[in-house]
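job 3f2a | input accepted
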Amino acid sequence: MAEKIQQLELALGKATEAETPQTKKVQSEATAPKEAAKPETPTKTLARDRNQKLPKPTRFEGDKKKYKVWRAKMQNKIQVDGHLVAHDHVTAIAYICAFLDGEPALFATQWRDRNTASQDTEKFVAFLDSRYRDEHEAERAYS
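job 3f2a | predicted structure (143 res):
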């Protein structure tokens, strides 16, 4: 029995030596794992519909406890829908000002009057941060 196994192994060894590049290619294709078919995803589900917009942020009236959330919503609105609402720094600042009431609206108007030559959105938001960011928020978070 062992002799027959050796003969078969010898025969198999010679057969593999006689393989051509074509038969190797066919064998490798047959044993290679097949790629999973890529599921078709409609592009509409991947890209936002141009008519679909984020909701408008609420108006900010100066409550420091509400500023952080209002600021995040405003930032998201400008980043996502900026092509609709804020084409440049001037329109971005005007858009932000449209959602300010009371004291914040007054301070924003004064800032715009003082900075007519260079209205930069980041500087304007930094100005609002300096007035309305809650300095004690981190301390309260741990207590």
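job 3f2a | Residues 41-46 have pLDDT under 50 and may be disordered.
job 3f2a | closed
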